[in-house]
Specification:
- The protein is of the alpha+beta class.
- The chain has a single domain (about 1-60), classed as Alpha-Beta Plaits.
- It has one helix spanning about 30-40; strands at about 1-10, 15-20, 45-50, 55-60.
- The protein has a four-stranded antiparallel beta sheet, covered by helices on one side.
- The termini are far apart.
- The model has no long low-confidence stretch (mean pLDDT about 85).
């Protein structure tokens, strides 16, 4: 997982974190890490992007 980025959202009180996944392949342990980050820092959801990445919304 490389080249992470924060996204500006319409709600200025929160942001979203996008994680690029080269080739769309990652290990199960990375999915668990993404889940923990979404639960602890985001709103508990993870969105799959059209470019084979993930987005963690709702980060204050």
């Amino acid at each position: 997982m490389i080249k992470n980025g924060y996204r500006i959202t319409s709600d200025r009180a929160t942001t979203a974190l996008r994680v690029r996944i080269p080739g769309g392949h990652l290990e199960a342990r990375h999915l668990e890490l993404i889940r923990r980050i979404a639960d602890e820092y985001g709103d508990g959801t993870v969105h799959l992007t059209t470019r084979q990445g993930v987005e963690i919304p709702g980060i204050p």
